[in-house]
Specification:
mainly beta; Immunoglobulin-like; Phage tail protein beta-alpha-beta fold; six-stranded mixed beta sheet; 48 strands; elongated; disordered C terminus
């Protein structure tokens, strides 16, 4: 009898669980609590074979670790508590009839050894269904579902995977595969939003990643773990929990040593035959024993209170023996003999495989390329030359993987040495010839590979903003002589002219304005006849201002003045002083937006470009030739969709444009802008990959020496110009995932011999 010791205390809680063997390989499990137990509910499953006994409103002081039993069909026991419910899980080696009863502070579960003998109703026992299919909450296959998948860190540092089920009758099967744990939930639909890969490394538990994905009509959840850990799984109501706990240093040290869990016994013999001791151990454990004829000799031993498997291990090592166990049968013989037998068995199996008949099966691929899948099956890396050869071979029908060994590097093949893979690229069909065992693996691999991939729409936007400001002040000062034409002359009449250039206006003493329409260098004066007093208009012609300049500092010739004012002061038919003040102010704002978009598949490079080719003349050895250089807006991107619906993008964005203002021998400069980076972006999110801000400020001053340095008056001999230019480049990128429909993908195959 084994006993699970209590660990904590609760109001109404199970205090201990014990088990005992009954005649007929039956096992009786007794549960004791600190108060009256309610009648438990129970159900069983056949894959894996398991019994579940539920106690509502009852806690548990029993540790969660499974306890090995190894009696009859009962392999182990495990007591799990969650909330106000406690479940006793009885793991079986095969489905078995059982009955459950509760009376007072204890409940009794009796598991049959495979027959129904002795399973009669008695007292207050309530007999449950002993058939394998019995389940209180059974549903039709395919009606189960998963509501949510979550991960948490427990108070003791353990990692907890919480699977919320739509129905409490859903059955889950957990298996450890290498360092990982795989949970298979049959006939259960996984919503598309839960198809993902969770990164749980930040929780500091043995679990690193959790991947949930559909497997046909089933659901498969894989926990990628690291380090040495212990794990357990239990289900309460609609929640299935998988716990992983890292072992302490002491526990790891104990684990490195071989642990023995057998029932303890004492042996005290002197010079006893080895075969007799082995027979005693077989009788003590109730296991079947097969001993080789080459096991001979005697042994003296004295062992007190040691596990029987430890005692057996000591005997085997002292006599250079070895053991192989399958089910409840032990086979013992000399280590060399067992090793030779296993080697012979492997060689025989290999010979059987070499003689196994070959079967031909063809696979019509829907989404994957035949040459890519063939490369996976044959463990080869298809080079570019081999791809070109494959395309050329489409005109000749099928292509065999064996004919391409010279162009492919082998990295491990799923196909057996006798097998072969042919592909018809025109119909995208794979033709595989191999043994039935190898073809079974090929079917599984093709089902996983021949699936639609998600696509990503990459939208990028390049924004180039320009902002410029120019301010220019200039002055021109000149001296000239005046001539006149008119009906009356008066050399003593004075005049002045204020204007904007052409036409100009002159004024006289009486304040009357003359007519407009004069040409540059002309002025008009209204004079009176000295005898009659009759007024008349006289037009005077002066030397042009630019021909008689003392100061010539106008605004920039490339940016003509937007405003100017002229002053002309002097005597008619005499000399004049001309002054022109000019000013120019300009502002400019511009925005260039380029928005390339491209649609591509997951992990597939895409490129889009738009632009022009600029011709360049090259003279070599007296011969003239023309070369073209591309000036393009180009987007190169390779997206990768993560299980969390994020997108990792490898991006190269190039924007080249010719600068017509600068050239060499008539060939323009090419202004280049390029961003090369990798970014992680959420689906539909817009990010700024990078920006370049360019600011240029130019200030210039020209003046007449000495005179320009005079206070105030010196401004008549200066020309000032201020120019500011700002330019900014921003690049925005938005990825959008376009998902295909997720459904069960059927494998279309044909067979032939």
């Amino acid at each position: 009898m084994a006993l699970l010791l209590p660990a904590t205390a609760q109001a109404l809680a199970i205090k201990d669980v014990s088990y005992a063997a009954l005649p007929g390989d039956r096992v009786q499990i007794t549960i004791k609590a600190d108060g009256p137990l309610p009648q438990p509910a129970s159900f069983n499953t056949d894959n894996p074979p398991r019994l579940a006994i539920d106690f509502n409103q009852v806690g548990s002081d029993i540790p969660k670790q499974p306890v090995p039993v190894g009696i009859g069909l009962v392999r182990s026991l495990q007591t799990l508590a969650a909330g106000q419910r406690t479940r006793l899980v009885i793991n079986l080696s095969a489905a078995a009839p059982y009955e459950v009863s509760a009376s007072g502070n204890q409940a009794v579960i009796t598991v049959s050894g495979g027959t129904n003998e002795g399973m009669a109703d008695a007292g207050s026992r309530q007999k449950a269904s002993g058939t394998v299919q019995a389940s209180p909450r059974a549903q039709a296959p395919g009606n189960y579902g998963i509501r949510n998948i979550d991960f948490r860190r427990g108070p003791s540092g353990e990692g907890k995977l919480l699977i919320s089920l739509a129905d409490a009758g859903t059955v889950a099967d957990m298996q450890k595969q290498g360092a990982n744990i795989v949970v298979n939930i049959p006939n259960t639909k996984l919503p598309p939003k839960l198809i993902r890969k969770l990164d749980v490394t930040d929780f500091a538990t043995p679990a690193q990643f959790i991947t949930a994905q559909p497997d046909g009509s089933n659901t498969q959840i894989t926990i990628e773990a690291t380090g040495i850990y212990e794990h357990l799984a239990y289900q309460t109501d609609n929640e299935y929990v998988v716990e992983l706990r890292a072992l302490t240093a002491k526990e790891e040290a104990q684990l490195r040593e071989k642990s023995y869990t057998g029932e303890r016994l004492s042996l005290n013999f002197q010079d006893i035959e080895v075969r007799s001791v082995l027979q005693l151990l077989a009788d003590f454990t109730g296991m079947n024993l097969v001993v080789s004829d080459n096991v001979t000799g005697n042994i003296t031993l004295r062992l007190q209170n040691v596990p029987w498997d430890h005692a057996l291990d000591i005997i085997l090592k002292s006599k250079n023996l070895d053991m192989r166990q399958k089910d409840n049968v032990m086979r013992i013989g000399p280590a060399a003999e067992i090793a030779a037998a296993e080697k012979l068995e492997l060689e025989s199996k290999k010979q059987v495989e070499e003689l196994a008949p070959l079967v031909t099966e063809w696979f019509k691929l829907s989404y994957a390329k035949a040459e890519d899948v063939a490369a996976v099956l044959t463990g080869t890396t298809v080079t570019k030359s081999s791809e070109d050869t494959a395309r050329a071979a489409t005109d000749q029908g099928t292509q065999s993987s064996k004919n391409k060994a010279a162009e492919e590097s082998s990295t491990g093949s799923i196909i057996s040495p006798r097998g072969s893979v042919n592909r018809d690229l025109r119909t995208n069909v794979l033709i595989v010839k191999d043994t039935e065992e190898a073809l079974s693996q090929v079917r599984t691999i093709i089902q996983r590979l021949d699936v639609p991939i998600n696509q990503v729409l990459i939208e990028s936007r390049l924004v180039i903003a320009d902002d410029s400001f120019t301010k220019d002040l200039g002055v021109r000062l000149g001296f000239g002589s005046a001539g006149a034409s008119g009906s009356v002359t008066d050399p003593n009449s004075t005049f002045y002219s204020v204007g904007g250039g052409v036409p100009s206006y002159s004024n006289i003493n009486n304040g009357q304005l003359p007519q407009a329409g004069l040409n540059a260098g002309q002025a008009q004066t209204i004079v009176r006849d000295p005898i009659t007093g009759a007024p008349s208009v006289r037009t005077d012609q002066f030397s042009l201002l630019q021909d008689n300049l003392l100061v010539n500092l106008p605004t920039d010739a490339n940016n003509p003045a937007t405003s100017a004012i002229n002053f002309v002061i002097g005597k008619a038919f005499s000399h004049i002083i001309s002054l022109e003040l000019s000013a120019m102010q300009s502002e400019g704002k511009g925005e260039l937006i380029a928005s390339p978009r491209v649609l591509t598949g997951d992990r597939t490079q895409a490129s889009i470009k738009m632009g022009e080719e600029i011709p360049f003349q090259i003279i070599s050895d007296g011969e003239r030739s023309v070369l073209f250089k591309e000036a393009l807006l180009k987007l190169d991107v390779t997206p990768q969709i993560t299980p969390d619906d994020d997108v990792i993008m490898d991006l190269i964005i190039t924007y080249d444009n010719p600068d017509d203002l600068r050239n060499v021998d008539g060939n323009p400069y090419v202004y280049k802008r390029e961003v090369k980076t990798q970014a992680l972006v959420s689906n539909g999110e817009t990010i700024v990959l990078g920006g370049v801000f360019k600011q240029q400020t130019n200030k210039s001053k020209r003046q007449t020496p000495v005179l320009g340095d005079l206070p105030y008056f010196g401004n008549l001999f200066k020309q000032r110009m201020t120019r500011t230019a700002n330019q900014e480049l921003l690049i925005f990128v938005t990825p959008r995932i376009i998902k295909e429909g997720l459904g069960q993908i059927g494998l279309r195959a044909g067979r032939g011999k």
